[in-house]
């Protein structure tokens, strides 16, 4: 049962890694179009940061699974990287609605 949970998590991390790459490519194409104002530019930057931080998490998680167990220093560095990128992703996701709320408050 425990190995099934690990497999599901690994699968979802791999799928989300591909989704991040697709999201970054879509945002890159959006870069060609000029944003209307600073609020739109900030929103696009927050989306890019979210995708980039999650991509860093996915890559560090994948490398952590591939690294040999006796490389403790490397594993500790990867765990710190995954934790930091996870929290940075969370902060960007929380910042998106807060930013929209702040923009609406200024408009009113």
From TrEMBL:
Keywords noted in UniProt: Membrane, Transmembrane, Transmembrane helix
Transmembrane domains' residue ranges: 12-29, 41-63, 83-103
Protein name in UniProt: Transmembrane protein
């Amino acid at each position: 049962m425990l190995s099934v949970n690990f497999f599901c998590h690994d699968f979802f991390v791999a799928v989300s890694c591909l989704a991040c790459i697709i999201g970054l490519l879509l945002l890159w194409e959006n870069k060609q179009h000029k944003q209307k104002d600073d609020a739109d530019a900030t929103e696009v930057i927050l989306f890019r940061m979210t995708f980039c931080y999650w991509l860093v998490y996915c890559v560090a998680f994948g490398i952590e699974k591939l690294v040999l167990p006796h490389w403790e220093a490397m594993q500790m560095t990867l765990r710190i990287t995954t934790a930091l990128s996870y929290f940075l992703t969370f902060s960007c996701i929380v910042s998106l609605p807060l930013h929209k709320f702040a923009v609406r408050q200024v408009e009113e």
